[in-house]
Amino acid sequence: MNESLRNQPIGVFDSGMGGLTVMRALIERLPHESFVYLGDTARLPYGSKSADTVRRYAVQCARALMQHRIKLLVVACNTASATALPALAEMLKPVPVLGVIEPGAEAAVKAAPSGRIAVIATEGTVTGGAYQRAIHARNPAAVVTQQACPLFVALAEEGLTEGLIVELAAKRYLDPVLSGASPDCLVLGCTHFPVLRETIARVAGPRVNLVDSAETTAIAVERLLNEQGLARTAGIRTLRFLATDAPDRFARVGEIFLGAKVPAADVELVDLDVSNPRAAE
Fold this sequence. Notes:
Distance between the termini: 32 Å
Radius of gyration: 18 Å
Shape: globular
Helix content: 40-55%
Strand content: 15-25%
Oligomer: single chain
Largest sheet: 6 strands, parallel
Strand order of the largest sheet: 4-3-1-2-9-10
Number of strands: 10
């Protein structure tokens, strides 16, 4: 394996800052790897947009990251993972592409001995049914209930992770999936949701396990790097942050998701040239 290839960074993208929860898990698990993160903050949220639009945006994000000579792409967005993964895998080959749906489904099945699983996600992820398919591929007998929680994304992006507004939103969204037979686990099917974890856990109650795909995604990335001889085992990591809008705000609010300071000077404003129809091809 070419040593220069091992030293290339891993690319990560999301519609906004939610994917930083995945990047946080990747950083903790892969101490020698370098990363380039792209938050498409000018066009979030993806969850309320059509599948065709999400695929177009995801392709543009991937192309921007490929300019940084990435060795692996992590789609740290449930909506994009649900709709754009095949297109991205075809476009980027031989560069491997991983999403967050499959690792999340695997963790959910393990956390649900009775097979009762609830999924909260964006409207796009719920409508597409990607979690249901991935869960049933592992446990055909699983009973999966889903609930779209669009307001959670806006709250997370505003840095509103606690308080009455978050509590009321959580009760409004969770009541339908918690009524009747309580699920074994609740899948946080959007990378923005983990920053609301304490409130969601309190509303869901102690008997419901919360499943966050960030850690299982990091495990899947580590496995793939080792299998393909791409793992970097030494050296000093570098972190780069790209945003399509408001880099100062990205740095300020991004700290909530990453769990570490994001220096404003380290966030680069990028233009995906959305006005050019050829950029979306």
